[in-house]
Amino acid sequence: MCCCPPTAMAVPFPNFGSYEWLLPFADVKHVFQDLPLRTEGTVLTVVVGCGTSDLSRELHTHLGLPQVVSIDNDEEVVSHMKAQHEDLKAALSFHQADLTAPCSHVVADGAADLVVDKSTLDCLLCSEGAPKLVHNIYRMLRVGGCYVVISFHQKEFLMSLLSLAFSIESAIDLQRDVGPDVLALVLRKGTEELPELQKALDAWNVQMPKDLMSETRREALEADWLQRLRPGASALPLSEAYEVMISSSATWMRSVSIPCRISNRM
């Protein structure tokens, strides 16, 4: 996944334990509490791009969701998460799969009641994979099922893609201590069949600008980053890194490979 500098996650896995993109569960819990979710029977929740987040565990232990299937494309991450959640293996399962390819071998078509996406779509929007992810999530969900997207992108931009497959139930602004606010979108799969969905999603992707990192933008980022480094420092505090890379009006996160690290100092 590509929406962060390659060196930003340089701590050797699995020594850094759990890692939360955007916000911890405590800050997004209310989004799920307001959903009309059943907590008994065969209710199935799917977490796409789970990484080493505690989200899957929290959905089960704090919200009572009985069955949570978590998917990531990194085999080492999946092995780590299985080991970490051995005590909950009856309720939590972790699977290695490419979310840009059909995943019916992990989640049968129409089987999921809820799909949760915390910044996985953000990462794939940097590539050709976003339409494929959206289509796979559409296939996973039952009619009337919910797709919750937590993203740093703006609502209008996200809906230009997601409205091709889903209806919007609500949009919730989530504040952070560092960086711009985050958006939670609650979407629902309708009853109408969409046989041409993949074609529509691919057409959306073709229309999006591909040259998101011009040479001028790259040079400006490098200059701003280096200018902010303190004498003798090799890393920027995270709050300053956000200021350099993301503005509150940004539609896209700009990723760039530059010879500097992000510090976790706030």
UniProtKB/TrEMBL annotation:
Classification of source organism: Eukaryota, Sar, Alveolata, Dinophyceae, Suessiales
Spell out the InterPro entries in the cross-references: Lys/N-term_MeTrsfase_sf, Methyltranfer_dom, SAM-dependent_MTases_sf
Matches recorded under Pfam families: Methyltransf_31 (PF13847)
Q: Which family does it belong to?
A: Belongs to the methyltransferase superfamily.
Q: Does the keyword Zinc-finger apply?
A: no
- The superkingdom listed in its UniProt entry is Eukaryota
UniProt xrefs under SUPFAM superfamilies: S-adenosyl-L-methionine-dependent methyltransferases (SSF53335)
CDD domains recorded for this chain? AdoMet_MTases (cd02440)
Q: What name has this protein been given in UniProt?
A: Carnosine N-methyltransferase
What does the entry give for GO biological process?
methylation
State the organism named in the record.
Cladocopium goreaui
Name a GO molecular-function annotation: methyltransferase activity
Name the keywords, alphabetized: Methyltransferase, Multifunctional enzyme, Transferase
Question: Could you tell me which residue ranges the Methyltransferase domain spans?
Answer: 48-157
Q: Is Secreted among this UniProt entry's keywords? A: no
